[in-house]
């Protein structure tokens, strides 16, 4: 961990080159001066100004496991359930093959894609209707993947709970799977909120997904209802760590005030060479094949260390 950083320069500013976790080869930054500026804002502002917004699939779960076993996405966990109708898998696969290329098409404007994504999630919801289903099926499959979370995820969520930092897990996937994995991994603390698509039931049968629909292009803080409790909790917290594995995840904090300081951390694993340029342009810190929570934990450790010093100073001055 990066707790042995030095504060040699004037004013006690932290320097990137003194934070070991950020000087590792696989930790890349387009603009280290910007990263340094944000870290110092975070440390100066303290935990009470922080919030975390994280993607779930392949951000909280690993992109690569030690045994090489694949980790399913949240929709994948649902699709593996035994009691789904016979044609369910084939029909949702058809949708995937139609809409996935549109979702990742580098040429189509986002405004045009949005209509297609609404169509995709709507049709998927229609297929997820009209049959009985028990959450325990998801729980059973999810239990196999509770160990597929990044190394030190448990510690990371414990840090966030101890520092009382609101943590939003955003997923355009299936919320029931996300919650099930997080709960079984014992990281679903009271400061953690999952915003995603949750199964809806009517008269004992599945009836698609609950509103609001979360799709790839509205997966950001603009979907947080301004009257919601979570909005109340975070709208004054203007120091934000955003974590994701897809380019679109970098926008998860859009909707927060422009004056906010946002540190975007991107986990890059697939096609490293081809994707590097775009990830470097999009994220402040790009972590290449890093299957741990060590870098976000380093940021929290720096914030906590200064926080403790400040508390100590207040205590001393009141003696
Ligand atoms: C409606 N729908 C969307 N997806 C995919 O699920 C992803 C969920 O999006 P995400 O929450 O950004 O998760 P990620 O970390 O996996 O990117 C989308 O990007 C879609 O590609 C879907 N995948 C499956 N298997 N089945 C579906 O019905 C379905
Ligand atoms: Mg992801």
TrEMBL record:
Domain of life: Eukaryota
Catalysed reactions, semicolon-separated: a ribonucleoside 5'-phosphate + H2O = a ribonucleoside + phosphate
EC top class, as a word: hydrolase
GO-annotated biological processes: guanosine-containing compound catabolic process; nucleotide metabolic process; ribonucleoside monophosphate catabolic process
Keyword Ion transport: no
GO CC annotation: cytosol
Entry GO MF terms: 5'-nucleotidase activity; magnesium ion binding; nucleotide binding
Pfam families: UMPH-1 (PF05822)
E.C. designation(s): 3.1.3.5
Keyword Cytoplasm annotated: yes
Span of the signal peptide: none
Official protein name in the record: 5'-nucleotidase
The family this protein is said to belong to: Belongs to the pyrimidine 5'-nucleotidase family.
Keywords: Cytoplasm, Hydrolase, Magnesium, Metal-binding, Nucleotide metabolism, Nucleotide-binding
Cell compartment(s), UniProt: Cytoplasm
Organism: Drosophila yakuba
């Amino acid at each position: 961990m990066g707790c042995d950083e030095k504060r040699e320069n004037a004013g006690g500013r932290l320097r990137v080159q003194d934070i070991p976790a950020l000087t590792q080869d696989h930790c890349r930054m387009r603009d280290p001066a910007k990263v340094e500026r944000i870290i110092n804002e975070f440390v100066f502002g303290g935990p009470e100004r922080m919030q975390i917004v994280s993607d779930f699939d392949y951000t909280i779960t690993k992109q690569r496991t030690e045994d090489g076993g694949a980790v399913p996405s949240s929709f994948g966990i649902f699709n593996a359930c035994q009691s789904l109708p016979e044609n369910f898998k084939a029909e949702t696969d058809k949708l995937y093959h139609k809409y996935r290329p549109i979702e990742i098409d580098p040429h189509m404007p986002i405004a045009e894609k949005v209509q297609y994504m609404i169509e995709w999630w709507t049709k998927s919801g229609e297929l997820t209707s009209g049959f009985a289903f028990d959450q325990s099926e998801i729980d059973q499959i999810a239990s196999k993947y509770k160990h597929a979370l990044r190394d030190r995820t448990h510690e990371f969520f414990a840090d966030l709970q101890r520092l009382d930092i609101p943590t939003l897990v955003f997923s355009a996937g299936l919320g029931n799977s996300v919650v099930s994995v997080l709960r079984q991994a014992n990281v679903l603390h009271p400061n953690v909120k999952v915003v995603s698509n949750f199964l809806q039931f009517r008269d004992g049968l599945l009836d698609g997904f609950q509103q609001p629909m979360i799709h790839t292009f509205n997966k950001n803080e603009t979907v947080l209802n301004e009257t919601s409790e979570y909005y109340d909790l975070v709208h004054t917290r203007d120091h934000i760590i955003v974590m994701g594995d897809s380019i679109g995840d970098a926008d998860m904090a859009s909707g927060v005030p422009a004056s906010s300081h946002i540190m975007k951390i991107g986990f890059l694993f697939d096609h490293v060479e081809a994707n590097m340029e775009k990830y470097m342009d999009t994220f402040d810190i790009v972590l290449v094949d890093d299957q741990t929570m060590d870098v976000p934990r380093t940021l929290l450790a720096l914030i906590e260390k200064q926080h403790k010093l400040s508390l100590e100073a207040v205590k001393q001055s009141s003696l």
